Amino acid sequence: MASGTIILPLPRCVRRRLQKWSRKTHDKVEFRRCQSILQWATGEKPGSIAQGLGCSVDTVYRTVRAFRKYGEAALVHRQSPGRPRKVTAEQEVALDQTLQQEPRKLGRNFSNWTAHQLARYLKLAVHAVTVLRHLWALGWRWRRPVQRIASPDPRYPAKVRYLKHLRRQARQGRIHLYYADEMDVALLPTISGRWMQLGHQTQIDTPGQNVKQYLFGAVNYVTGALLWVPWSNKNNAGFRQLLKQVLAYHAGETTQVVIVLDNYRIHKAKAVREWLCRHRSELRLYFLPTYAPRLNPIERVWRHFRRNVTDNYFFKTMVRLMRAVEAFLTDLAEAPATVLKIVA
Question: What is the DSSP letter of 256?
């Protein structure tokens, strides 16, 4: 087709607008269209225009025809809407809600969802890979879960509700709420991940004979106050010493202290019960459901302690180890805000 078959009169005002548009636009398609019209109007051959703009001759012709038919509106680059979605927004919501439920609770005879099974359950006419893309967009990832002990306590829900009640009372200042527990401090180092050079495995020394001491600790749920007692044995005498320390910390106050702890036998020893009878107006104990350590925030304090003190380091003597224990806990107790972040 000869270039003379398309006559393109271009008024001066239109030419100036196209020149200005061509200079200021950041869209390469709009730039190419403006230049095609401007160069065509000056008598440039279609082949030369196409070569200079890096496009085909047919593109130049299509641009000129569209400009003659629709004017400057034809030069605007409009993004293509693309093909319709195969998974609608409502189906995405259903996908997210389904994955939050166990398959067996929905009457399925398997324990883990797969992309193929999700598509079949929701009647999605798409490939499993498409389901996977939507799961990633919804924030789901394939990970290995961790095991936890399921508490056999029949009163577990009621006890959890009462724990929430105690926390509300503590935040209102009606009680001092503590969580307490014991921890073994052994000369044998605990092992965890650490940085190592490629091809080299770090070796940690161990004692010829392991030696242990024990820590009785309590943390205030509201203030972050941290109290502890080192003791040679894990017995009710050490536990009673911790209780005395908690009462001494709140000496002269009328607010009752409530200590939440597990069902370890030393917490219910006869000597402990007798001591509590003498201090029933000052302090009382509340026992967690059986096998529910995740309900005790002081467990997180112990994990923080091990990561920073006993993990991957051999102290050689118990004296050195207990000095490090005392120094670390003293520094931690002086930063109650940090304690609260740990137990939160």
Answer: E
Dihedral sign, Cα of residue 38, residue 44, residue 50, residue 56: positive
Closest CA to 173 of 250, 245, 243: 250
pTM of this prediction?
A: 0.64
Over the range 322-343, which residues count as b (16 or more CB within 10 Å of their CB) and which as e?
eebbeeebeebbeebeebbebb
Query: What's the rounded Cα separation, in Å, for the pair 181 and 301?
Result: 10
Strands laid side by side in the 212-220 sheet = 226-231, 212-220, 175-186, 256-261, 283-287
> Residue ranges per domain, the chain?
7-75, 89-137, 156-189+208-343
Assigned architecture for domain 156-189+208-343: 2-Layer Sandwich (3.30)
pLDDT at 79: 80
Mean pLDDT of the residues in the chain: 91
Instruction: Please report the beta strands in 201-277, taking only residues with DSSP state E, as ranges in sequence order.
Output: 212-220, 226-231, 256-261
